[in-house]
């Protein structure tokens, strides 16, 4: 699952690195991508993710991975279905969205509302093209930006998402965070809440670690998937 304001096209640079090693399903969250007309709620996210999980053949180990907003949606799914997954990857989603930590989320939503979609599009295009080569970022941008659900999405995250959501998740959990990502500040709380969790750091990467260091991100993801598949019960 993708992060806020983007769609499943966020994963375009990851697809060629992963597709020969595992079966990929890219999910658009409500209000984003082809689900642009849907209202964003975490409850609806859980339903959308569950549709994809249920489409996997019975007995096949399933790992759900999400970045940022998608990570919190993945967390909500795992909390609602604690026995459904072989593994859970939360990328850039290790902050507790309460107290001072919530300022990050409020800031993103406020900036989006203040600038408006047209100006935010220009800002995003300019920043992303400055950070990344065109062949990496243009397929991401081609999926469009989705600003309308931002405020509602982060209100949902701030209202419902806590480290305690992982307390009853039985599968291994990977916190996959960029070295300079501000949203990894609460990782210790998540590790305490979930004994089956561990953290891996993508060096020289920020919040968009899958774009900053695509090969390192994909390598960490594949190692984790390999470990949970190897340890999954055989039918």
Key features of this structure:
235 residues; alpha/beta; Rossmann fold; four-stranded parallel beta sheet; 9 helices; globular
Q: Which fold name is given in CATH as the topology?
A: Rossmann fold
The oligomerization state is single chain
CATH superfamily: Alpha/Beta hydrolase fold, catalytic domain
Structural class: alpha/beta
| Rg, nearest Å | 17 Å
Low-confidence stretches: none
Gross CATH architecture: 3-Layer(aba) Sandwich
Kindly report the spatial arrangement of strands forming the biggest sheet: 1-2-3-4
Question: How many separate structural domains?
Answer: 1
The proportion of residues forming helix, as a percent range, comes to 40-55%
CATH class: Alpha Beta
Shape field: globular
Strand content: 5-15%
Distance between the termini: 28 Å
Mean pLDDT: 93
- Compressed to H and E, one letter per element, the order equals HHEHEHHHEHEHH
- Biggest β-sheet description: 4 strands, parallel
List the helices and strands and how they pair.
Layout: H1 15-18, H2 42-54, E1 63-67, H3 69-80, E2 87-91, H4 102-131, H5 134-141, H6 150-160, E3 173-178, H7 187-193, E4 197-202, H8 209-212, H9 214-231
Parallel strand pairs: 1-2, 2-3, 3-4
Helix pairs in contact: 2-3, 4-6
What does this structure look like?
Helix 2 packs across helix 3. This protein has helices spanning 15-18, 42-54, 69-80, 102-131, 134-141, 150-160, 187-193, 209-212, 214-231, and strands at 63-67, 87-91, 173-178, 197-202. The chain contains nine helices and four strands; from the N terminus they run ααβαβαααβαβαα. The chain has a single domain, classed as Rossmann fold (3-Layer(aba) Sandwich), CATH 3.40.50. A four-stranded parallel β-sheet has the order 1-2-3-4, with helices on both faces.
């Amino acid at each position: 699952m993708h992060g806020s304001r983007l769609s499943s096209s966020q994963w375009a640079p990851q697809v060629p690195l992963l597709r020969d090693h595992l079966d990929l399903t890219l999910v658009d969250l409500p209000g984003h991508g082809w689900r642009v007309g849907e209202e964003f709620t975490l409850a609806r996210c859980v339903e959308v993710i569950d549709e994809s999980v249920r489409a996997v053949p019975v007995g096949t180990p399933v790992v759900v991975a999400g970045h940022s907003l998608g990570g919190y949606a993945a967390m909500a799914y795992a909390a609602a279905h604690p026995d459904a997954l072989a593994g859970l990857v939360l990328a850039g989603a290790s902050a507790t969205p309460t107290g001072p930590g919530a300022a990050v989320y409020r800031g993103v939503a406020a900036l989006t509302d203040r600038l408006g979609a047209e100006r935010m599009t220009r800002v995003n295009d300019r920043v992303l093209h400055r950070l990344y080569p065109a062949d990496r970022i243009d397929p991401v941008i081609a999926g469009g930006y989705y600003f309308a659900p931002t405020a509602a999405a982060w209100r949902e995250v701030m209202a419902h998402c806590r480290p305690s959501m992982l307390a009853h998740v039985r599968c291994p959990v990977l916190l996959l965070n960029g070295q300079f990502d501000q949203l990894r500040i609460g990782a210790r709380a998540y590790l305490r809440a979930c004994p089956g969790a561990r953290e891996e750091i993508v060096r020289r990467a920020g919040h968009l670690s899958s774009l900053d260091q695509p090969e390192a991100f994909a390598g960490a993801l594949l190692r984790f998937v390999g470990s949970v598949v190897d340890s999954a019960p055989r039918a």
